[in-house]
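Re: that chain you flagged

S.,

Sorry for the slow reply, it's been a week of failed gels. I finally had a moment to sit down with the sequence you sent. For the record, here it is as I used it:
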Amino acid sequence: MHYQIINGNITLGANEILRDINFEIKDKMKIAVVGRNGAGKTTLLRGVAGELDIFGENHDVPCVVKNGELKIGFLKQLAFSDDSITLEQEVKKAFSRFTEIRQRLDTLLLKMETENDAAAAQEYSELSDYFKNIGGDCFDKEYETVVSSFGFTKADEAKKLSEFSGGQRTKIAFARLLLSKPDILLLDEPTNHLDLAATEWLEEYLSAYPGAVLLVSHDRMFLDKVVTTVYEAAYGTLTKYNGNYSAFVRQKKDNFLKHKKEYEAQQREIARLNELVDRFRYKATKAAMAQSKLKEIGRMVPISPPEKFDLKAFYTDLTPTVQSAGTALTVKELKIGYDKVLSTVNLELKRGAKVGIIGSNGMGKSTFLKTLTGKIPALSGDYYFGAGVTMGYFDQQMASEKSFETVLENYQNAFPLLTATEARTKLGAFLFTKDEVFKTIDVLSGGERVRLALCKIFNLKPNFLLLDEPTNHMDIVGKEALENMLKEFSGTLICVSHDRYFLEQITDSLLVFEEDGVTYYPFGYADWRRQREKRQAEQQKTLLTETVKKEKKKYTTPLKERQLKEKRLSQIGKEIEKLENRLNQISRECEEFSSDYEKLSVLSAENEECEEKILALLEEQEALERELEK
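Prediction finished late last night. Pasting the structure tokens below so you have them in one place:
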């Protein structure tokens, strides 16, 4: 499999988004496209998917080269063609080829039973073999694995698509896409809406995926575990780096420093030569030397100045206006949920603690924050904040806020005592500069709405932050900016996030919501991960030990071991003889029931089973004979 773009360009309307694209996908490559929001990452995916034209300078010369007809699958959140069908029916569309064959087999079997049709029997036999060879016997199991890994239950499979939320619908489309197994899988932010368990499963699935994967993601740990090639979109061009995301960061920094060093060295040399020319150009005895230095400068291949890293990000001082009491939050037997209890939480936080919250979807992570902020009532139990706590709460739904207010109006309505100049200064720190403050809320991107919400929250200078998925719509530079602010934050923090790298950077403890309860880990994400891996290793070791204990020691002496092997050889001979007698009997019955196709089908299956058993016994017999010869 091979897909290549040679000196291609992509435009949107009159705007050139990417130019001089040189890009390649081969075989089982796992590729990431990284860059700032608006750099053209999704544009490239749409170009590869065929949604946007990719053209060269000469429009008559194709710049996209493909090896045959490639099946390309692109994950997008689109409306389903029929909302009245069930999850199972929608996802199993990926297996349309298998279901068509299975339906044909059922039709042939019915025909064999009712019409004694010899041609149907022949087609049934050939089609059954083909179905087995292409993996038809496994597709039901594969469907169950993928659907359950995305967090859907058996009950969910029977629900209509119209009953699911937007995030769930994206996961349904994702499951169908994975099971359709395209040659090139295009994924735009695939870990959005996935909990930790589903993300880790997806990492393993994509790493072993039999085709190529091209993805856009801001999840740095996910990129490190999945991809082996990175293309950076910046300043309208693509640059290729070999390795995962961490390798890309190192290479980019090294390349920048090398380029900067070479550029500065050339500039120093040009300055030195120009100085010589200026000193001696008007001296008759040195004029020839001055001219040679000018020619030397002219022969130099100019090194362009290195492009600066695009690190423009938001920032504000998060120092709280007041300090809270030493114990910032106490939670005792707090039962959270709506119509039923989702989880029970016990927790005590000292001032300055930074707690990350992880766990499966539906366990109550966001519900816990909503309960602490009083947006929904507790089902039972108690919680109370320490004296002097001032709260700042970010709800992930803020990224979906719609309004016809401008950014400036929205901010001034939240802080009416600020002058327009003061408000614009505050907004400028969060990258709303110049005319951007006059954009209406409804035209802002998800990332811009998050920045506006954080700008308002952080201006309050709270000493206790409750953040629910604050990085979902941020690019990597934005995440790093927020990480740096939260690292410096001296107040108390509780943050729900699926971004493991983010949690590893800013939290010092972890609250894990699981099926069997809510557990507090006092040493952060990295420690929880080590403990989990240790528990899994111990469970595996225990399971192995129990398996070994269950196996009785069969051989105590060489003589007894030989006797047991000889006894087994004798048994194998009898078993083979019995199976061969049955094969002869089946042959006779096939002649007797030659017109009964249902009976023939049953006999054919039994015949195949007997032959497989004989083959296995012969292999065991041969192995035992070799051991006895030794």
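What I noticed first: Residues 249-299 form one domain.

Talk soon,
D.
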